[in-house]
Prior knowledge:
The complex is a heterotrimer of chains A (about 290), B (about 375) and C (about 290).
Chain A: H1 3-42, H2 47-51, H3 65-73, H4 84-114, H5 120-129, H6 136-148, H7 155-179, H8 183-191, H9 196-204, H10 209-225, H11 228-233, H12 241-250, H13 258-278, H14 280-291
Helix pairs in contact in A: 1-13, 3-13, 4-7, 4-10, 5-7, 7-10, 10-13, 10-14, 12-13
Chain B: E1 4-13, E2 16-26, E3 31-35, H1 42-50, E4 57-62, E5 65-66, E6 77-80, H2 92-103, H3 107-121, H4 136-148, E7 154-158, H5 166-183, E8 186-191, H6 194-200, E9 203-208, E10 211-216, H7 218-223, H8 228-233, E11 240-249, E12 252-258, E13 264-268, E14 282-287, E15 292-293, E16 303-315, E17 319-326, E18 329-336, E19 346-352, E20 357-360, E21 366-367
Parallel strand pairs in B: 3-8, 3-9, 6-7, 7-8
Antiparallel strand pairs in B: 1-2, 1-4, 4-5, 9-10, 11-12, 11-14, 12-13, 14-20, 15-19, 16-17, 16-19, 17-18, 20-21
Helix pairs in contact in B: 2-3, 2-4, 3-4
Chain C: H1 2-35, H2 52-59, H3 61-92, H4 99-107, H5 114-125, H6 131-137, H7 154-179, H8 183-191, H9 196-207, H10 209-225, H11 228-233, H12 245-255, H13 259-290
Amino acid sequence: MNPMTIKNNKHNAIKLSRIIMYVVLILFAFYYLLPLYVMLVNSLKPLDEIRGGGMLYLPSLWTLEPWKSAWSTAQIGVDPSGLKPYFWNSISMVVPAVFLSTLLGSLNGYVLTKWQFRGHGIVFGLLLLSCFIPFQIVLIPMARVLGIFGLAGTTSGLVLVHLVYGLGFTTLFFRNYYAAFPTEIIKAAQIDGAGFFRIFWRVLLPSSGPIIVVTIIWQFTNIWNDFLFGASFADFDSIPMTVALNNLVNSSTGVKEYNVHFAGAILAALPTLVVYIVSGRYFVRGLMAGAVKG
Amino acid sequence: MASLTINDLHKSFGSVEVLKGINLHIEDGGFLVLVGPSGCGKSTLLNIIAGLEEITSGEIQIGDNSVAGLHPSKRNIAMVFQSYALYPNMTVSQNIGFGMEMKGVEKSVRATSINKVAETLQISELLDRKPGQLSGGQRQRVAMGRAIVREPEVFLFDEPLSNLDAKLRIDMRTEIKRLHQRLDSTIIYVTHDQVEAMTLATKIAVLKDGCIQQFDTPYEIYNNPNNMFVANFMGAPAMNLIEGKIVKSKNSFEFEMKDNKGNVVSLPTSGIKSLKNYVDKIVILGIRPESINDLDLGSKKDSVVRKVIIDVVEPAGSDTFAVVELGEKQIISRLNGNSRVSAGEEVDLTFDLSQAVFFDIQSEERIR
Amino acid sequence: MKNYLQLWVPKIVLAPSFALILVFVYGFIIYTGYLSLTDSRMLPTHEFMGWGNYSKLFGLRHWKIAVNNLAIFGILYIVICTAIGLLLAIFLDQKIRAEGLLRPIFLYPMALSFIVTGTAWKWFLDPGIGLESIMHEWGWESFEFDWIKNRSFAIYTVVMAAVWQSSGFVMAMFLAGLRGIDGEIMKAAQIDGASGFRIYKRIIIPMLRPAFLSAFVILAHLAIKAYDLVIALTNGGPGRSTELPATFMYSYTFERNQMGLGATSAIIMLIMIFSIIIPYLYSELRSENQS
């Protein structure tokens, strides 16, 4: 075989493997997009069209009725109120919880890296471990405690729950970030006469942009998507979106309006999807920071 | 400006004692350099002077006041860090003025001081920039500006030149020396670079393992080292340390070394009294490379000529360093820059023993 | 005097979070553990019954099904996610032109709630209107895909949905790991004559050990906690065939008024997770301290 042929064969082999790679990647892309596509497409069809089959086909009759129904008139629980009130329940739960857990997490991370004391390792270890507990283990006592404090079934109760169980992660994120922040800058600020809070406010926090974004995205996604706590501790006034969606979809009475279900599912997914699309890089960074610890 | 006095200072971290009885005094306007290998405790000592670490026992006085227990911002000190430690989110102007802001000084007064300092350091055009937009040398000057504007009694420098490249380091070294002369300030300076120590200091404290090995002027430290560690640490290339025996000869003593053929090479000693206690014992001779050269000194007192074999030649421009074999030992000599020796040659070199020093082989202390 | 204040302020700032965690996490764990030793039904009682609940639990058919399902689900979930994640990461690392587009597509399912995922897949897997009916329409009449309604196969549908949700995330972890590998190692291997496949097998994949470990820990922990997905997808059914410890705990505690047993099952879940997490965290913190 002459060298040119060998070279050509190798060249072709490489080309072939690259083609296979692209094919595989595109197939997987379809695999990931398919359910979303199915939901989207079928949420825009009238019910008889869905029942007639053809799940993959574009609507022959485009309609926004399922969306309107999912938002404002679908039967969820007792009232035919649609998902709107539950959407706002979620918002009023998520916003304070994200804000408070991020704020506390940043202060904790600051203390644990720049003001270390004896036993700080244990404190951090316990906080870190709390990220991994199965939430089932706290359901019973939490239900009791919320009842005792009159917070059962309220949004404030849910905010407390999400605050507490988010502290581990937010502290972890800030702690790792601040560990990499040069301690000499803190020393310089001390010499300049700045105290604990002034150093935090004037020196550390202004440089914390990236990790604040990561933390907020992570917390927002996890809290918005939570189901277990919502299902266990919420009442009519505070049921979040995920629980409402499940009620909508799994209600066994009457006709199954698939198109409304799909519209509802997309509505429930929209906030976190939008956050993800807008800030994808930070989202990944958050996953990395939380997962590949340290 | 003020003096600094440290009395019997001890510092332990848990059960590990890092500073073991430090005694120092630097007068008002002096430039004290703390020098030593990593881990010797020099940075800890500086942090203690600054108030960033607590004392385990002992006293520190700045001027006439004892400062133990005082917060760093209340000690009238200023510090320049190895990494400059500039506030990343603030402009140069805000960085320099931050200390005044914390004290509550009015904005207009602050601005005047900042501008004055910026002019002195030639960074006036950088006032609105952030640290991330500056070069290493510029950041260094901003860090100095932040320190100067505090008008402290003592300046503390923690290895400020370590992060700079070689040429910039020499330029900045001169800046710091100029600063010292202009402001007549008391400076405490930490470095591991003994060249910096020699060129900048009025007094040097050589530290090892938490103890001061010698506290003296640069001249004394270089020419009159207390022990082998100081002798070896200061000076580049390092002092040659050679083992040999003291023998009696005529009116004085001679230092004998063996070579690998069994021949004896001897060098005269220059009237060191205590050597009489070491006759027929092994001691260490310390002789600096510049005392071994190819100059013709005629019959200068305490100089002898010996034959050596050249091993490696290192031309360095103004000088040529040659590693030579004398007896069994390889030592470094400093020859004229125009020297034309080559490896393997046997040449005559002059040994000037007027500056030679001797050390006890066990205690490593100087034999005087 | 100012110095003393600085000594206490940090601890005071940290204290609320620490107190909250102590009470609401560790305190609650102890309380649930205590409950698991009592004969609580609808409400907590204080009738101590020692390990009775535990022996009862292990004798229950429902529990055995749940644990069995967890094993099947967990192993398949971890293995398939890792395999897919690794494959996609390696491919994406080959300077693919559309990487910027593909990566977000692979990852977006992680942004969704498990409820949404369950909903989407539920209909896709439904024989009447999902994949099976599509295949029928396309002419493949004999195609059968009623796993979701099939007691023996329903658990595998949970696997499918879970893999869809998490494999992108595993891919991102491996991709980060691959990108952290010094390119010069590849060059050295090429000079040594190793082919592409060999380089991966002998050099790169072993270097990804930390990523494998992290992926395993995260996935195992998600598998043990898996609740939302099952509820949305199958609600534990048909019958109990997709019961998992998490759904068991919830139904026994809140629906069947067997609080003692529910608490016991939660403790078992905790032990399972901790036996993986604690060694992992310990070794991570140790190596961080050393470096």
